[in-house]
């Protein structure tokens, strides 16, 4: 199954809400998302992304078969890290294991490296999220280490891994 990344559209709100209104997905993301996740929440998010600084926020809908199946974003850091960006992503549970995450990550990183001065993209999945770690590895990211007791999610103290891809790795 092939995927494409594209800019968000307001008419994506229903599919976005359907994807994020899933505890299995939210359990692998940072806190702060409403649950249950409504169509109004999705419209608010899409509106914020469309208004965001185009030199700092690179956020895309992940589509397959003309349907929104996930989200991916790369967010520029600041100060001495202004040429570094953090990436986050998720895929609708019914599309897990179909290669869409790897496909979207490769397209997004290529876009960011080709269109910005960003030199390094990193991601910090929970260590237990083996599928997400594998997606990053298949996308060319290198594991730089384990961040021990780095997060508290659902009242659990969790380790995270840090992965990075350098622009120079892709040239």
From TrEMBL:
Residues 3-163 form the N-acetyltransferase domain. CDD domains: NAT_SF. It holds the Pfam family Acetyltransf_3. Its EC number is 2.3.1.-. Keywords: Acyltransferase, Transferase. It is an enzyme of class 2 (transferase). One of its GO terms (molecular function) is acyltransferase activity, transferring groups other than amino-acyl groups. This is Ribosomal N-acetyltransferase YdaF. It comes from Bacteroides intestinalis.
């Amino acid at each position: 199954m092939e995927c494409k990344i594209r800019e968000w559209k307001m008419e994506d709100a229903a599919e976005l809400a359907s994807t994020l209104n899933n505890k299995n997905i939210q359990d692998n993301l940072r806190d702060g998302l409403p649950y249950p996740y409504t169509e109004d929440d999705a419209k608010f998010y899409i509106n914020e992304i469309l208004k965001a600084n185009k030199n700092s926020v690179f956020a895309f809908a992940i589509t397959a078969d003309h349907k929104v199946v996930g989200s991916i974003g790369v967010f520029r850091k600041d100060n001495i890290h202004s040429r570094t960006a953090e990436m986050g992503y998720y895929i609708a549970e019914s599309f897990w294991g179909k290669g869409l995450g790897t496909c979207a990550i490769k397209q997004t990183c290529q876009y960011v490296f080709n269109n910005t001065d960003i030199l390094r993209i990193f991601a910090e999945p929970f260590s237990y999220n083996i599928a997400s770690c594998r997606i990053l590895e298949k996308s060319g990211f290198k594991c730089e280490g384990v961040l021990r007791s780095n997060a508290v999610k659902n009242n659990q103290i969790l380790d995270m891994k840090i992965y990075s891809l350098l622009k120079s790795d892709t040239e």
